[in-house]
Amino acid sequence: MGAGIHRGMCVGDETGVEEAVASPQQKRMTCVLWACAEQRVCRRGYALLQGSVRPSVEGGCRNYAGAGGVVKYDKVSFGFFLDYADYTTAHEWAGEVSCRWACTSRVTVQPAIHIIRNSNGNYAAGLLRMYYVW
Predict the structure, then answer these.
(1) Average pLDDT over residues 27-53
(2) Chain-centre distance of CA 10, in angstroms?
(3) Neighbour order of strands in the sheet with 91-102
């Protein structure tokens, strides 16, 4: 579990348009509370849950919830994740299917397909994540 505090960051709104940079007098601090859990449910399977809430509702994402699962085999993991985000002007459902491969003891590669449905339409995105552990 955790919390995040952001001040004066230039972020995009729920339509993807970058918000104008505010002057120092207009910048406000915002708070986000979040929780994340991973639980082993069988020998190779894990369940994932995460969520967040933003107490202030002047704009952006107010609530977020997601759930998924992972199956791990030696150096390869297969996963899926479904989530819902409640924005001040829209709602969004999304899903992701991914595969994660440990190339070395320090480098992992994770290609994924992300499907999104919101009030603006349906979208798909291909992702390639790379992790390095030191």
Answers:
(1) 86
(2) 18
(3) 2-7, 29-40, 45-53, 61-73, 76-87, 91-102, 107-118, 121-132
Residue 54, pLDDT > 60, answer yes
Q: Which letter does DSSP use for residue 13 in this model? A: -
Scan for tokens 């995460």, then name that residue.
50
Residues 98-124 as b/e (b if ≥16 CB within 10 A, e otherwise) read bebebeeeeebebebeeebebeeeeee
d(CA 46, CA 63): 24
Closest CA to 68 of 76, 60, 78: 78
Neighbours of 19 (CB within 10 A): 12
Distance CA(111)–CA(107), nearest Å, equals: 13
Residue 28 has pLDDT above 90, yes or no: no
